[in-house]
User: Fold these one by one.
Assistant:
Number 1:
Amino acid sequence: MNRKTFIAATLLAAFGASSLMAGCGQKASTPAEGEKIRIAMVVKSLGNGFFDAAHSGANEAAAQLKNVEIIYTGPTTPSAEGQIEIVNSLISQKVNAIVISANDPNALVPIAKKAMQRGIKVVSFDSGLAQEGRLMHLNPSNAELIGKKQLQMAADSIGGAGEIAILSASAQATNQNIWIDVMKDALQKPEFAKLKLVATVYGDDQSDKSYREAIGLLRSYPNLKAIIAPTTVGIVAAAKAVVDENLVGKVYVTGLGLPSEMAGHVKSGAVKEFAIWNPIDLGYAATFAAYDFVKGVPDAKAGGKFNAGRMGAIAIDGNGEAAMAEPFLYNAGNVDKFAKIF
Ligand code: RAM
């Protein structure tokens, strides 16, 4: 080997080794002043209007924080496997933070831990990761409130008594399962004693599957009075099924929906009222939270707080959870006004 080829070979070996190291094991350090911060928002699935709204909130936060890039991503259908693959690739891309709405509280923990070991700040929002898989979880609101409000809306729609069914998102979704548990507990209480839960089915936050499941409920339970869909995808599909089966006025749909997607179904009469929090604010605040963790702000920890920009400071409890505002109720009186926003 002459001198030139020796130098080239040495350089190549050194480069190869360092790029290998970059790919596995090195810890991302706190970004220097002026360095671009890359925050990946990993949603349950793409094509869901709720997450599109959260994305616009993340972009708003990025514009205010300056020097922040949002990488918006998610699987095509809501599966933990799809999200694991995505997080793996975000680790190789060495993003600074991952803000995730998890399709499963536990299945994603090992990959989230791997990301954190590499210095990536992992924050869950909307649908949580188990505590050991994230630094913080941002709830849209109090779970108890969200669960009970949905039963209350169902009871209001059907005069307080009758058969009800739940059309949920995917069977492992952290957020929906927490709310369903709250509903099942509340059904044991005297105030909801006349509501009878006859079935819980899963539409996987896919319009076609949700629609088929809703049709199945309507045909299997002829005395059904209400369908509660604690998912913005499911509630639209259930309302369409009620209209298509000519059951408007006999079966009412309620749950969590986006005013922009629900206005027509309030007009058709399939839905009297539904609820939701502001998904734009949720994405906005989650992005601010991730930013504080990336910056190593001392208060950004369990028992502390984070700066949520135009929303002020938000407290983080001892379990690393934070919560935003109460869900808001929509009906014929206000749905058109909010339909213009989200
Ligand atoms: C769907 C998703 C999301 C949930 C909303 C209410 O868009 O399942 O996680 O928070 O509904």
Note: The pocket of alpha-L-rhamnopyranose is lined by residues 44, 48, 50, 101, 126-127, 169, 175, 205, 231-233, 256 (CB under 6 Å).
Number 2:
Amino acid sequence: MSSAVVVSSENLDGQQQSSSTPASPAAEKVNLLGMSRAQLEKFFEDIGEKKFRAGQVMKWIHQYFVTDFAEMTNISGKLRAKLEQICEIKAPEVVHRHYSKDGTRKWVFRVGEGAGSLVETVLIPAEDKTGLRKTLCISSQVGCALDCSFCSTGKQGFQRDLTPDEIIGQLWMANYSYMEEVPVADRERSVTNVVMMGMGEPLLNYDAVLSSMQIMLDDFAYGMSKRRVTLSTSGVVPKIDQLAQDIDVALAISLHAPNDELRNELVPINKKYPLAQLIAACQRYIAKDGNESTRKHVTIEYVMLEGVNDQPEHAQQMIKLLKNLPSKINLIPFNPFPHAPYGRSSRNRIISFQKTLSDAGFVCTIRQTRGDDIDAACGQLVGQVADRTRRAEQWQKKVTQRQEILRTQG
Ligand code: SAH
Ligand code: SF4
């Protein structure tokens, strides 16, 4: 097998490549960027090499941001030549990048043909007691099938899952953006935190997201602390249980409503997995903790929609709903987008909602909006998409009705 690599679909879970790839120049090369250590070890064994090469190559890719095998100096010339022939290290194509005055950075990646084949990644820096934090908000799908009524991604509909190299490629690119001018030997990883809160529902692209998060945690790659990798879900209950078995990362739940009636409207997957099931799954996730603190709590995300879910009775319902779930609540001021049927709750309204929850003993924070000058608010990516459905219009009617009811109730 000197000039051919045979890669079974089994060992390349979720990767896009042909199953038998003759190493002619025209053949599609195997992209190593999105392979977990286990996959890379299998790959090296399959091409007749020692599996420890996997760790070496991973370090070059994810710690030194090298894409050219010629620069991998601890690998023999012969093996480098072989690798060059059959594989590549390729991040998704950046079609747009924007670096904001406040340090926020945004990338738009092309992940296919056609106007809609774009995904976004945002990096948000912040100072905290541990120093400078750089949090990267990563996308997992092109569009999203779940159609939450306040979400611009949902309005695009679902196009496709991202592959592992497209997911980890976002982290790779963000790190590389700080190291481009730095000599290879001096390069470092800059991104300190990852939140799977970009476009898409990560638990509906489970295998690719899981192997990407394994690369994030792997000491041969990004070596991130499990507390600093957060997966956000709108509540795909069976997959929350699976996640608990497969990996130890922080969990965030997009709650957004404290009762089933309202949540069915805002987060339609609630009709399939209602609140009682969701809260129970969160409790199981925390209970699964065999060791330390990653799973002491879940983060509850709650977008503040004026006149919709921001009333005192909603805060009271939250208190009841979450009373047996160790949680930290993050109130998110709604980010408007074109044709959005909602408004952002006023600052006072958000603060008084926060106070009710804090007084009841919850840790409750308000998310800072950042990167406004580059339209880079997390959770509202590719903001300028056309509403391809008539859903926004229908929602607008419902919201107007609800606001009218609230007004007449005084
Ligand atoms: N699909 C996953 C992760 C992506 S959305 C999820 O729903 O959790 C990431 C977060 O941004 C979610 O909490 C989502 O509800 C929130 N979000 C979506 N649209 C938003 C908007 N217009 N304003 C504020 N937050 C929004
Ligand atoms: Fe999908 Fe999350 Fe947007 Fe809902 S909020 S439509 S689950 S990306």
Note: Residues 148, 150-152, 197, 201, 232-234, 254, 301, 303, 332, 334-335, 337, 379-380 surround S-adenosyl-L-homocysteine (ligand 1) (CB under 6 Å).
